[in-house]
Each structure stands twice: as structure tokens, then as C-alpha cells.
Amino acid sequence: MSQTEWDLDEDQEEKPFNGKYMKRMLHYLLPYRKLMTLVVVVVFINMLLSLSEPIILAYLIDKGIGMKDFTVIHILAGVLFGVKLIGWLLSWMHTRWINFTGQRILFDLRQQLFNHLQTLSFRFFDGRPAGKIMSRITNDTNAIGELINGGLITMVMEFTHLLGIVIILVWMDWQLALLSFIMMPLLYLIVSKLRPKIEGSWSRSRSTMSAINGNLNETIQGIRVIQAFSRQQKNNEKFNGINLRNKQAFMRAITLESTVYPLVEMIGMLGTCIVVWYGAMRVIDGAITLGFIMAFINYLWRFWGPLSALSKVYSQLLSAMASAERIFEILDTEPEVKNEVKARELPQVRGDVSFKNVSFRYEENKPDVLKNVSFEVKAGQRVALVGPTGAGKSTIVNLLMRFYDASEGSVLIDGMDVKQATLESLRKQMGIVLQDSFIFAGTVEDNMRYGNEEASDEELQRAGESVRLDRIVSKLSDGYQTELEERGSKLSVGQRQLLAFGRVLLSDPRILILDEATSSVDTETEQHIQEALQKLLAGRTAFVIAHRLSTIKDADLILVIENGEVAEQGSHLELMKLGGLYANLVHTQLSMQESVMLQTNMN
Ligand SMILES: Nc1ncnc2c1ncn2[C@@H]1O[C@H](COP(=O)(O)OP(=O)(O)OP(=O)(O)O)[C@@H](O)[C@H]1O
């Protein structure tokens, strides 16, 4: 599935309320419970202060202006100012505290996810595009952070605010209060009918935006292939389609929203107008005072704010539920390959390796990729793994590194089952160089020291010289301190390979795994690589997924893998004598080489 398709097949944006997830989310608040209690108290006091304003105003109108009492006017104006000032101060405080805890919670959650992610086994990453995992760590943690922090406080604050207003309105005049709520059923009907439509359109707008991002990502990553195949026109059409869908979804959402909310406000206003009309008449009747009706109307104005805030928090809550489900799914995934309870440190190994009747499948209910594989390798031997593509060569080294555990049988190092060793002590003694070595952003030295930070400068220099990296480094602007970009894009394929050799040599593993590069480099670099390789392999048990006849011929043991089985094993001479699959492979390669040489000579 392409990135774009994954994005169009967007995860659900909202999920019904789930008490279990809510409890788990609230757990993240626990370390900050004291501060949060303080926030709730401050918010509550602030709400009381804010609710007192219309009443103060009413007194000011009735007792001050109405009775022409300047002392009351002075005092109440001062009180009003004081209330506003304290309110502002309290708001400043609780906003600061909420932001502080919000950031702390986000920090904790992101850190926990990142730490956990690094422990997960390859199988977890096999079936998930990197973009999706990244979006979980960024977007989904944000959604949860916003809810457990701002959202919950808003909920408490606005709910008590709303309750306070209703109580005051009923306390002031229950008949007038009932009259002002006359439009509520109609409002409820409109909002409950239209809100899902608005939310749905926004959700579509977001998911099409995500598809736009996915498409951009795929285009940037694959720009070489796109241009090489001249696919720009086709890509434009595809992008146009997604872009159009995004525009339409946005327009629908904004049209609905700009119709519905003014409508809601107008209907709300109708209720207020009825109160104004009826209240004004009662003021003239002398049944109520001017200050009273002013305060009453003021509370009515305030009524809508908490309602719309609560409806927003509600959708925030549902989208946080969807995010929580995705995040907890990652956090609840146990690493498949992990230290057994009785795992021991693997002592310094000699390097004997044996596979005993090992079978393996990548997925349950799928056929075995390795079938009953057995072989013995003595310490210091060089093993060449050869065979057609998809035969299972990489899978063998994956099991040796314990990236996956064998489904049946056992993998032994110096006679000890790798499952009994702690992962760290096992992998510390192994080194792996893949065809396209991953280079991290940082300096050449950082990359060299990746497996052994404590190495001395001399060791670093020596490793660099051994693999002929020093010649490349001396041509770089800052030598070993030259900054490399992510994936080492400034370096050529051959240079990246030599750097990877240097990195492994410095970590000095007892067992080395090497996926020999198939891509051709110029003869000089090839010669450097071969020389570096000899240095690297010397004195270590080495498994080479070999493509070059020269490497294969030099091997102490050749394992010919076919359809997940060891079809033949032995030395070059033994296998040539056997005249089987290996002999055939060698003949094919030799005749290919001859025809290339013939062609070169003819030209
Ligand atoms: N992560 C994975 N999930 C599912 N199946 C996989 C996975 N990796 C490899 N396979 C399958 O397992 C089989 C063996 O793959 P493996 O990579 O070991 O072959 P290989 O001999 O190293 O091939 P090549 O020389 O092309 O690298 C193949 O059929 C492949 O499709």
C-alpha cells in the first residue's frame, strides 16, 4: 500500500467515550495532582468572581445611580475594578500552570512512546509505514495532551460556570429564567442534527490534508524515479484529485459552519429578546428594577459561551479517545524478542555458531521461510551464504542477530542458545554491515563511534586507516569532524560502505555479518573495499551474504540456500566436485564474466 493510500485510509478520528482509556489518560496527571488541584481551586474562585460582576453592576445601577449615592458608586466601581484585577491575576496564574503541566505531560508521553518504540521488534515495524508511527508520536500525543490538560480543565470550568449561571438566573426570577430557556429545545434539535455533519466535513478535510502530505512525501522521496519515468503528468492528475477533494471538504465544512452558528446565535438572541421585551415592561410596571434586568440579561449573554466551549471539548474528548486507542496500542505491544527471565550475560565469545534444525516463518499461518536449517561454524571461520533471491539468506542472519526468534530449533553461539543470553550482551559482540549502510546525521567521528563511544582517538585513527577511510576523510573539509547529513547523502555508495566498515571495526565484534554490496563501484574503490574487508574479517567468525565469486571462493564454508533449506554445504572445491546447484551458479557467473570480457575486448 502506498503512503497516499495509507493516508486516505485514515484512522478513525473519533471514538466513543471509553472509561478505561480515560482512567489511563488521567494517570498522566497524577504526578501533577497537587498543582492541578490548585488550578481547579483557582479556576473556581475565578468563576465566582466573574459571576459576581453583573450583581455588582446591578447594585451600582439601582443603589448608586438610582439613588444618586456617590459613595456607593465610588465603592462599587472600586470593587468592580478589584474583582477584574484579581480575576486577571488568577487567569494568568492558572493559564501558566495549565501550560506547564500540559507540556510536562506531552513530554512524558512522547518520551515513554519513544523509549518503548526502540524496544519493539522488527515484526512490529514490518507491517506499519513509518509515516503512521510518526504521526502517532506527534499528532496523537498532542490530542491526548490537549485533552487531559486544557480540555478537562475547560470541562470543569465551563460546566460549573454554566451551572452557576442557571442557579443565579433561577434564583433571581424563575419565571423569567424559564422564559429565556424557551428556545433551548429548538436549539438542541438544530445543533444535534447539524453538528455531526460539520464535524464529518472537518474530519474529511483533515484526512484529505493528510493524504496531500502523504502524496508530497512520496513525491519528494521518489523524485528520481518519477522524473526518470516521466510520470509528472500522471502524478499531477493524482494530486489534483486529492487536492480537489480537500478543497470541497473544506468548503462544505465552512459553508455549514458559517450558516449554522449565526443561526444558533440568532435563535439564542430570540430568547434574549423575549426576556428584554417582557423584562422591560415589568421594569416599567415597577415589578423589577433596571439594575435587576440588566444583570439578568448579562447572565443570559454569558450563557452561550460555556455551552459552545463544552460542545468543543466534547469533540476533543472523542478525538482523544481515538488517539488514546492508537497510542495505547503501541504502548501495550510487548517486544516480541526480549530478555528471558533467566537470561544471562553472554561472556566474551570465541565465535562458534551452530543452527540446529531451525525453522522460521515471518507470520503465523504463513509457510516457513526457513525449513529445518542446520550447520556448524567454527570460531574464526568465514561463511559465504549464497543462493537465489528470496531463498532465506538474510533471514538466517536475522535469526543470528536475534532480530527475530526461531519458530523451531535453536541458534547457538559457543554452545549457548542465543535466547538464553541478554540481548545487549549478544548484540555487543556482533557487528553487521548492510548493503546500503545507514549513516546518521552528525560528524564522521560520531558515526564511527556509534558502536563504541569509549574508543580512544588512536583507536579511531587506526580503524580509519585499516579500512582506508583516512584517505576519504582527509579530502573532507573538516576531516573526522565533517558534518554528514542524514543517510550520508554527501558520500558516495563506496564511501558510505567504508565508513560502515570503520564503524564496525571500531566496535570490534567477535561475529561479523556482512551483506556484500551488489552495486558496482569503480575498480579503485572496489579494491579499497576488498582490502578493507580483509582487515575487517581477520580473526572473526564472519557470515557474508556473498555475491562476488572471489569472496565465495575464499570462504571456509559455503552454505547454498534454496527455498529456505540448506541445499548444499562445503568448501568451494567440495561443492564444485558435487556438480550440483553451486557448480551451476559458478558456471553461470563465469560465463557471464566471460561474455562481459569478450564484449569489452570487441569494443
Ligand atoms: N519482514 C518480512 N515479512 C514477511 N516476509 C518476509 C520478510 N522479510 C523477508 N520475507 C520473505 O522471506 C523470504 C526470504 O527472504 P530473505 O530476505 O531472507 O531472502 P534473501 O535470500 O536474503 O534474498 P535477497 O538475496 O534478495 O536479499 C522471501 O520470500 C521474503 O519475501
Could you explain how this protein is built, in words?
By secondary structure, the protein is of the alpha/beta class. The chain folds into two domains: 176 residues, ABC transporter type 1, transmembrane domain (ABC transporter transmembrane region fold, Up-down Bundle); 249 residues, Rossmann fold (3-Layer(aba) Sandwich). Helix content is 66%, strand content 10%. The strands form three sheets. A six-stranded mixed β-sheet has the order 6-9-10-3-11-12, with helices on both faces. Strands 2-1-4-5 form a four-stranded antiparallel β-sheet, with helices on one face. The N terminus is likely disordered. The site of adenosine-5'-triphosphate (ATP) has 11 residues, from helix 12. One of its GO terms (cellular component) is plasma membrane. GO terms for molecular function: ABC-type oligopeptide transporter activity; ATP binding; ATP hydrolysis activity.
Q: What proportion of the residues is helical, as a percent range?
A: 55-70%
* Class by alpha and beta content: alpha/beta
Question: Which spans of ≥5 residues are poorly predicted at pLDDT below 50?
Answer: 1-9
CATH topology of the largest domain: Rossmann fold
What's the domain count? 2
Domain ABC transmembrane type-1: 38-319
Transmembrane segments: 35-60, 72-90, 162-191, 260-280, 286-304
GO molecular function: ABC-type oligopeptide transporter activity; ATP binding; ATP hydrolysis activity
Membrane topology: Multi-pass membrane protein
